Input
Amino acid sequence: MTKDVLFDDGKYLECGRIINTHGIKGEVKIDSWCDSPEILAELDRVYFKENNTFVEKRVTRAYVHKRFVIAAIEGINDIDTAESMKETVIFALRDDVPLDEGDYFIADLIGLPVIDADSGRLYGRISEVFNNGATDIYTVNTEAGERMIPAVEEFIVSIDLDKGVFVRPIEGMFD
Output
C-alpha cells in the first residue's frame, strides 16, 4: 500500500515529501508515497508535524504531473515559503485515505508475525515493506537475519491484521 509510518495512535500516515517548488506563487512538488499520486492529489487536507504536533493545512489545489503531485497548500503562498518547505514530510489522516477491500496500510503490516500457513511455524516479523517496481517486498526479521518475501499470491496465503501474515514459502526462502 502506501509508504507510511505509524505515529502515536496510528491516526496519521506519511503520504509524501515536498521535493521542490513549482512556479513562484508557492506551489510545491510532492513525491507521493501513496499507491498512486492521484490518491494524494485528491486529499482536501494534509498535515505537517511540528514539535510533535500535527498541524492541519487545507489543500486549495492539487493535480498530478508525471508521477508527482503539484499542490497549493494553505500557508505556503510564495516561493520563499515553498523553498523552506523542501524535504518536509506530509501526513494524512488515516480516515482520509481510501482503502479498497483486502488492502492494508503498510503501517499495519509492520511488526506482524510471518507464519507458515501449513505448519504454523513462526518465521519472524515484518520489519519493512518496500516496492521494487513490480511488487511489494516484505522484509522479515528472523533468528537467522533478514529475509525477503515478495508480496504475491504465490507466497502470501492470507493476511490477518490480528493474527499475522500467513505464507507458503519456497524451499530455502527462510533457511
